[in-house]
Amino acid sequence: MSDASKEWPLWEVFVRGKGGLSHRHVGSVHAADAKMAIEHARDTYTRRMEGVSLWVLPSAQITSSDPGDAAALFEPAEDKVYRHPTFYKIPDGITHI
Amino acid sequence: MDAIATYALRLGDDSLILGQRLGEWCGHAPALEVDLSLANVALDQIGQATHFLNLAGALEGEGRDGDKLAFHRDVMDFTNCLLVEQPNGDFAQTIARLFLFAHYQELLFTALTASKDARLAAIAAKAVKETAYHATLVSDWVVRLGDGTEESRARMIAGLDWMWRFVDELFVMDEVDAAAIEAGVGVDKSALRGAWDQRIDAVLADATLERPAARRPVLGGRSGRHSEHLGHLLSEMQFLQRAYPGATW
């Protein structure tokens, strides 16, 4: 068994800053199981009242896009300015939009 | 000190010494995340100690605050239970000590929120949330180590065996407790033992562990008769104020 395989697996941590906001990715922790991951996330990322709720998920469960495909995936959107809803007037005092 | 001041002093000393012990792990824990977990618990305990010792000093009325009580008393004047001063040993021994103490502390603080002394009740109300988390966190570790590998299991058993003889002292009552209960301020600790036993047994069952064999209880911490370990702890904790009296930062 190699040293690497003895390490606890990595978990991605998401914190909800306050009610109504979505969970945001803040970093990762090592943990042997989901319960330990929540405890480590609590102890590592919410020490200063950063959150009201936590999600953790195994990093290995994330499927990411291939950086080599970036041109085909993302560049075609560059000249589609009409997809931005910039033609609406937003009333004053609206936040989180 | 009168009985109520001494009552607050004992609560503060328990939290202070446990916090100092757990702080010794800082930079040495098995993983970075565990280092943070133990330091968080240590800081919670030292925060509780600050409140309890400041209150003890105020009740005493001789101008001593929490810092003075923490850093300018000698071994014989400390009133913490013997359990919290026991050495860290390995990680499992540290977990065993926190496991036995955190469940006691959560039950104690829960009852103390009903104290007629509003200051004690307020400190307990804040601290009980911290302690509830400590009890959960440490119980999970007891299960992981006990129901883990052959080695982690052997170490967990040895850790519990080391700490077990200091359990009975947690629930011993004396004239200070009697006076505090009489005044409606203190908690009947002996009444907490049943609930404590249930909690401990449930976690041990999850961890596939047996209760350690009954040992002759070791008592004396409340009256200043401490193990050899406390002096060493204090020599480190109090070094700065002993070498540079009154130093601030």
Write a brief caption for the model.
The complex is a heterodimer of chains A (97) and B (249). Chain A has 97 residues and is α+β, with helices and mostly antiparallel strands. Chain A is built from three helices and three strands.
Structure description:
The complex is a heterodimer of chains A (97) and B (249). With 97 residues, chain A is of the alpha+beta class. Chain A contains three helices and three strands; from the N terminus they run αββαβα. A three-stranded antiparallel β-sheet of chain A has the order 2-1-3. In chain A, β1 and β2 form a beta hairpin. The termini of chain A are far apart. The two termini of chain B are 30 Å apart. Chain B is mainly α and 249 residues long. Chain B is 67% helix and 0% strand. The radius of gyration of chain B is 17 Å and the shape is globular. In chain B, α5 packs across α7. At the A-B interface, α2 of A face α2 and α6 of B.
Helix and strand run of chain A = HEEHEH
> What's the alpha carbon Rg of chain B, rounded to whole Å?
17 Å
Instruction: Give the name of the CATH superfamily of chain B.
Output: Ferritin, core subunit, four-helix bundle
Structural class of chain A: alpha+beta
Largest sheet of chain B: none
Classify the fold: give the CATH topology of chain B. Answer: Ferritin
Domain count of chain B, please report it: 1
The CATH class of chain B turns out to be: Mainly Alpha
**Rg on CA atoms of chain A, Å:** 19 Å
The secondary-structure element order of chain B is: HHHHHHHHHHHH
CATH fold name of the domain at 3-61 in chain A: Ubiquitin-like (UB roll)
At CATH's second level, what is the architecture of the domain at 3-61 in chain A?
Roll
Provide the low-confidence segments of chain B as ranges. Answer: none
What structural class results from the helix and strand content of chain B?
mainly alpha
| CATH architecture title of chain B | Up-down Bundle
Number of DSSP strand runs of chain B: 0
Q: Total number of β-strand segments of chain A?
A: 3
Helix count from the secondary structure assignment of chain B: 12
